Predict the 3D structure of the following.
Amino acid sequence: MRYDYLIVGSGLFGAVMSYCLSKAGKRCLVIDKRAHIGGNVYTENVNGINVHKYGAHIFHTSDKRVWNFVNSFVEFNRYTNSPVANYHGKIYNLPFNMNTFYAMWGVVSPKEAQAKIEEQRADYIAELHRQGVFEPRNLEEQAISLVGKDIYYTLIKEYTEKQWGRNATDLPAFIIKRLPVRLTYDNNYFNDLYQGIPIGGYTALIEKMLGDTEIRLEADYFADRDYFDSIADRIIFTGEIDRYFDYRFGHLEYRTVTFETKLLEGVANYQGNAVVNYTDGETPYTRIIEHKHFEFGTQPDTVISHEYSKEWHHGDEPYYPINDKRNGELYEKYRALAEQQDRVIFGGRLAEYKYYDMHQVIARALDVADKITANN
Ligand code: FAD
Ligand code: UDP
């Protein structure tokens, strides 16, 4: 049996490639080492609730091409992500907005809030300037310069250090720039034009993308590399790039997360929101997800997941790339090697070692597929 393309990985990158290449008349085989399709966006139905098995996934994008693309497979609901933070029993809205500032300081107008933030950060910024620092050098400097000390110490520092297992002064500033700061009463976590959760879960989206392409599950490319290399003309590889090159230059590092998922029978509503972040340092988990709220579920039961962030060890599930100098330089070496492989295309969060959101992975896969199909 010969294929035009072997696609290693049935996550979003692999599924989009499979859809586009099949549509262009290419014969594809998709393999995945897991027992299910979908990679990290996989959802599993438990008592009528779609459980996000690898962490909460909220689709958001401002890219109309990507939004139209995903909506051509499934409908999306009107879910808007509005997580709340619990700091020692007190609740604050996220992202940082007038509701947060009211809970923190009792201020009700944007003018008062702005004045309070100024007061909170003025001395700190002046001190940085005295030291000759005009651009925040790390996450702590960035966060305090943005929202001041109270918010930093209540909602950011301990959560961030729990999440990344590193001091906030050792983390890059850009991580916190993802979060909006607003002087409006708007709890929408994202600024994007489009947002929602696929009705029927992400697995339904991936199933539709894969269509009737041949799929082999529990098939690890590395378990039989020669065979897999021999059955297709070209390969789309979405696994770990360092593994592909037998760790020739050393291991790339990740941050991993683990989930303790429980079905609570007879509990219709556990926490009143899909996502509650625990921003104190003592609570061992970072957040609790209550899955039914992603779909406005009214089932008599509920499913919750406690999410723990852990240092990654070889053999653990890799989740978040570590954006530091060592890993950045190491990845560059692997990327240079990857570019020399004319039969193999490397794509997705593991093969490109990038902190990609779903819409970015899809946009990237659509671009790659366009290039391939334009040349053939
Ligand atoms: P993956 O989903 O990792 O797919 C890769 C696939 O390849 C896997 O199925 C794997 O089993 C398979 N594979 C790997 N090696 C082999 C091999 N050797 N042989 C066979 N198969 C192999 N994005 C958002 O937009 N919104 C969110 O709210 C959001 N939340 C997130 C929460 C968490 C906790 C995490 C970790 C990520 C989140 N993301 C979110 C990002 C999102 O998960 C990714 O952008 C997306 O899933 C990446 O798709 P992918 O295909 O690149 O990788
Ligand atoms: N963050 C924080 N407090 C919160 C939520 C997020 O300090 O309550 C910081 C933290 O450093 C985190 C970053 O903001 O890594 C990005 O958060 P986001 O929720 O976007 O990350 P995710 O874990 O969903 O990828």
